Model the fold of this input.
Amino acid sequence: MSLVEVEEANPVMASAPIAPYNSSPLGNSSSPNASRESLKMEPLADVAMLPGEERVIDKDIIYICPFNAAVKGKVFITNYRLYFKNTDSEMPVTLDVPLGVISRVEKMGGASSRGENSYGLEITCKQLFAFLSQEKYEENGWNVYEAMEEYRRQGVPNSEWRVTFINKNYELCDTYPTILVVPYKATDEDLKRVATFRSRCRIPVLSWFHKENHAVIMRCSQPLVGMSGKRNKDDERYLDLIREANGTTKLTIYDARPNVNAVANKATGGGYEGDDAYQNAELVFLDIHNIHVMRESLKKLKDIVYPNVEESHWLSSLESTHWLEHIKLVLSGAIQVADKVSSGSSVVVHCSDGWDRTAQLTSLAMLMLDSYYRTLRGFQVLLEKEWIGFGHKFASRIGHGDKNHADQDRSPIFVQFIDCVWQMTKQFPTAFEFNERLLVVILDHLYSCRFGTFLYNCESARESNNVRAKTVSLWSSVNSDTSLYINPFYTPESSRVLYPVASMRHLELWVTYYIRWNPRIQHQQQSPVEQRYKELLVLRDQYLKKLEELQLSDSAPSSTHLTNSSTPNAATPNQRITHLQTPF
Amino acid sequence: MLSLGSVGAKSTKPSFVSYVTPEEIKLEKEPPKKLKHPDLLPGEVEFCSANPILKYTQDDLSQRGVFGTLFCTNFRITFISDEKSQEETTKTFKNKLYGENDIPLMFVDHIYGVYDEKRKLITGALVKNKYPSKIIIHCKDLRVFQFCLTYTKEEDAKKIFQGIAHHCLEEKSLKCVFAFSYTGTPSPEMQRKRETILFDSPEDWTQEMKRTKANCRLVTENENFELSQRLPKYFVIPSALGDLFSYQGKGFPIWCWSHYSGCALFKASLPPVTQEDGDFQKHFDIMINAVAHNYLYSAKTEDLSESLPTIQDIQQSYNKFKQFFLIENSTDFWLSDMKWFSSLESSGWLDIIRQCLQKAVEVVECLEKDNTNVLITEEEGTDLCCVISSLVQIMLDPYYRTLMGFQSLVQKEWVAGCHAFLDRCNHLHQKDKECYSPVFLLFLECVWQLVQQHSPAFQFSETYLTVLSDSVHMPVFSTFLFNSAHHRESVLKHQRQLSLPSTAFKTPFKKGFFKDETDSLKKMLRVKRLSRWMGSPDSTAAISREFYESWQQRPLDYHGLLLPCLDGPAVRVWMQRYLRWIPEVHILGGGSVAVMTKLMELLSQVQDLKRVLEQRDSSQAAKPDHRPYIQHRLLSFGSSGRLPSSFPFAYSRNRSFKPIIPTGLMQCLMLTDSLASQEDEASSFVSLV
Done:
């Protein structure tokens, strides 16, 4: 018998998709876990397995539950997960952890066979399960995002903006997607020259276009100004072309970094756009800290919620992690970007390399400005475009299949972004088509390696590893059962800009994500209000159906024109009422 | 309510003694021409007014505002804008208790004067001399008003300032409270809804005993307050207690509520020992015995003055806490945003709430799990005893989670139960701050925590609680005006000979000596008599944690036992009450209001459909045209789509679609950490350059 402790470290374990302790005596009926329901498991012996999943090890062990005493049971390790089930029947305890989410295995005690287990874990982590999975879904999630389609939806290309294929072989910039939108007046030669002056050749390209006032959000990396304060006429002219496109008097450049950091970056060849060189631009620093600060912040947060939630000094402990302050800074940066764009001025957003803070800012601003991204589909497009397409380094930041858990490249930037989105959904509970569960599932599979969606650092790497062909997209799974992820309160409002309040008064810790495995935190499947609302929806549909039947029997028996209104769609009650009124 | 027009309010003979001299009233009768006047309530009289006064708008920093007239009446301070009445413009909701620019005199918490850029707290002494250029009024419902006096005539400015300061800050007699001048009669609608049990008759108590199957004894001997003026007119005691008059001056175990098992909760005042120790012990033994006799001869007691903060602690904590919400401008708001969480914590207010809830859970555990009688004691027996006993009843008895049940509980434990509202709320601005403490508010706070954790278990909403917390200071009601049942009766009987509340009612001075004595006594008692006392705080916390967890593992029944989660993140700030007037935090079209609106919308649709179906059923042939009705309903909700999150309290006016951008961000996050200055990709970057 061996003693194994799965050390829940870092963001990783806080985000284990399955609560390691199932507090309900009724089994999994009240389990908070969302992803389990979306799994289509095949029962195989004791453990339900995914298609493509294979058992590697099973053994009797004692699990030392951090919340309760030790539990005797059986552990199974497959090529996807570690699964534990207790053998004492009194209280069911299950532990179901995809190997991808295990950040660290620590040895403890003096039991002799522990090494065997940890060895097994290390091996399997390197074999990313996503490539072995044989799950089948009706829809192919890899087709959710088509760059051209999305730009066309925005109203691009047009007389001011053109699509360029200069990067079709990733020759201009290996971390950018193949399709880029640039000012109409900028030639491909211009782009090449600008690329020499931007860190990692990440030139300013269009992220979002405002249909009414034609203002744009551009994203890029820092200019290579260096200690000597180098200038580049092409870069300067290029930024001016962006400004001119809709007649913006002064182009606003949002540098996500704190001023001091931007200055310090000059020492390593980077820097920021100086006043002299870019006379028609104003530079605003948004004071958002770097990936290392964010990593440490989340680590501190983990310390105050695991294994026990700090009680008497909860608030000051929470404050000392600075996590919510960072959220506040990111949100208020995005608010400034969105505000500037909606007032008609074009903006350029960058940080150092333009794949962490920049992605946070542009995608949050787009979420505020464009209601399309607040739909279930649109949000997937947003992630595919701003994060996956533009090369947020998922592999480096998360460390998929990498055993070096102390890697300095790891950082929960994407988790932080999803947290910001969650804060927005909390403040505007009717503005988003998707619910909290989607956000949790996204984060679960950010670590789980079950889907190919968040694998690799950029599009070129995904292409060379044939991710689209060899793995399943997370969106295949999500879109095959959308009812799980629909917010019943959603009210589409197309023209509305959504400004959250970036004040500590409103920001709160995402307890249902960070502390969901704690048995003391109440796991409510859905809020009581939501439950009541759904009940009412059912009741309304019943009444409507009854009324329709009555009307059908009133009118000529052959009339069938009402049948199409009985689709169980919750989102548009008003339409249905009016629709129903016509035959009156 | 305030919008009701008043007919001839000024001509009726005032039934109160005014502080204003006849000259002032005379002046008032010849107001400057074109001056708009407030709609006075029946019995409301204007004292003085001044024009033009600039009222600063709170929405922005620019020190802009509206000009208008400031009035002071015997009921309120009110401001009427010179501009076109803003009242009627697109208002979808309004406060029935008071208007946007009304400050009932009892709402005034503090007044600050700005003299040559310096802010000073106005006290009696400052009033005589100069008048300030600007007055800032902090209200008990946490509104902040700022009026500029420099545009008006010096004489008027002085008069209005002195009038306001006098009527709001000076110690006054109870008869000057507006409730005694108010001549309005309750509307028939209000009279009809008298389902709340007032507990002012023997029948009410008998009924309550019947409802909970209590086996106790109703005491009617105090009908004329012969037993004690600090005790309710009628109350219930354990049936084993002997001759009441022999215990005069000592506490009685007063019955609060009976558990279905038969055990019951009692409360008692435990006055500081003045008698011989033996005498005290004898009396205490008799009390415990009587309580234990109620069911299976088991009893636990808990001295709340020992295990919970004192009323002075509560007041100090709340004083600190409320400061974080009395925001005068944007700069202050964003400055205080940085240390928000630690500020909250330093006030200790949330911790006091947690402690009270924790204590209530412990008592609930005794009743529910151990089926033991419980006696909670306290010096007065009418402060924390009320908090804990009310909370216990709400957790155990679903009746008290209905609106009428809750109001009956407030009547039973607080109003009939002789909580000293007048002293605790300091309605009369007495200088003696010893007795001032927001105990009732603390109770509402605890209830709010339960409501926000288990909203479907309650018939009332948080908005009800917020309005109730305001109503305490609303002098058109007399519910929360008195110190005890006796006090209420004597005041209402002899309205002509009003006197200040007797000093005998004040909190006795605490002496360490007595406390120590009682401590040792209890230790003896514990060994001698009682089956089990509540253990030390540490062990009880662990035990009740277990109790909570086992409750939590059962499926939640909203009509059964209800326990609060007391973990750090679970105890929260009552956002609606505390943040409702701060424009910076209003979310336009967001907040829980947005969801509630959707719910109401759907509910009305369902009801309409139901009605249509019923109509069709009843009159198949007639085919009534119900279309306009449905459309009407839909329209009325369509316009409410963008309510501010502060609904139904504050408006966010002039707020177009401009976001509020936090200021002073950098100051909050000056990280000196070496990590902060690190490069994101330091290692690989150099090679590229």
Notes: Residues 528-554 of chain A form the longest helix (27 residues). The longest strand of chain A covers residues 55-64. Chain A is about 40% helix and 10% strand.
